[in-house]
Design goal:
By secondary structure, the protein is mainly alpha-helical. It contains 5 helices and 2 strands, in the order ββααααα. Helix 2 runs antiparallel to helix 5 and helix 3 runs antiparallel to helix 4. Pfam families: Com_YlbF.
Length: 158
């Protein structure tokens, strides 16, 4: 997999500077390689399966309504009379979503793509310096019923 060579340009003062256009071209080539990976193909397959699943669509609508109600209760804190019931409803629907096979597989595929992207980012950063920090998505959740913006179903949960 040859990537475009990023060679330094020498300015009028003889100091080399990075050719930004070449660097961006390499970045796009790397993105193309990633998009052609089995992990991305698996992710896109399960994303489509989730988006077409009628049960996921129904639960996503219920989840959006429950989340909206919980947000209203949350404004007043745990002392709101419906706070705990609203919170329990959101968690219950999340658990139902998590039991659907397509959702399980989508979340696994999403995690695999996320891990691949993190590994690539880390390799790039470490090739520059061992002390560069690379942000990670550890601790963050997303996708279906993961507490983040649910991308399942037609209306989404966010």
């Amino acid at each position: 997999m040859p990537m475009t060579s990023v060679l330094p340009n020498h300015g009028a003062d003889g100091v080399s500077s990075l050719d930004m256009a070449s660097l961006l071209l390499c970045a796009y080539e790397l993105g193309d390689f990633i998009n052609q990976s089995a992990e991305v193909a698996d992710y896109l397959y399960w994303k489509e399966a989730v988006n077409e699943d009628e049960q996921v669509k129904q639960l996503s609508k219920q989840f959006a309504k429950a989340k909206e109600l919980f947000s209203e209760c949350e404004r007043f804190g745990r002392f709101h009379p419906d706070y705990h019931a609203a919170k329990d409803k959101v968690k219950h629907i999340e658990r139902e979503l998590d039991q659907i096979d397509a959702v399980k597989r989508f979340k696994l595929a999403e995690q695999q793509v996320d891990t691949m992207l993190f590994d690539v980012s880390r390799m790039i950063a470490e090739s520059v310096s061992d002390t560069i920090k690379v942000p990670s998505n550890e601790g963050k959740t997303g996708g279906c019923g993961g507490g983040g913006s649910c991308s399942c179903g037609s209306g989404g949960c966010g």
